[in-house]
Design brief:
Order of helices and strands: HHHEEH
Number of strands: 2
Number of helices: 4
Distance between the termini: 33 Å
Number of domains: 1
Strand content: 5-15%
Radius of gyration: 15 Å
Length: about 90
């Protein structure tokens, strides 16, 4: 079951910076497993407000980079160079 985290626009008092979004992306990429929000917060090098983190996760889910399930968050996005390597190793149909 996939959950969507929705943050109401009028409740947001702080928008995440690009550096914060990239920091969260990097932690999720390196995890290579399902990770909970609590574990994500522990692994982040800087503290991020909970509401800001939810906003980042909502963006990452909508952009197709993560899946949020009942057990946590999983990075699913594959970069283009990784796809090319996989395609070159595959069998042509």
């Amino acid at each position: 079951m996939v959950q969507t985290i929705q943050v109401k626009k009028e409740e947001i008092k702080h928008s995440p910076t690009l550096n914060t979004v990239l920091m969260v992306e990097e932690i999720l990429k390196e995890a290579n497993e399902v990770i909970t929000i609590a574990e994500l917060k522990r692994r982040l090098p800087k503290k991020v407000m909970h509401q800001t983190l939810l906003q980042i996760l909502d963006y990452l889910q909508l952009s197709g980079k993560i899946i949020i399930g009942t057990k946590g968050i999983l990075w699913i996005y594959t970069e283009r160079k990784e796809l090319e390597t996989l395609m070159n190793k595959g069998t042509e149909l």
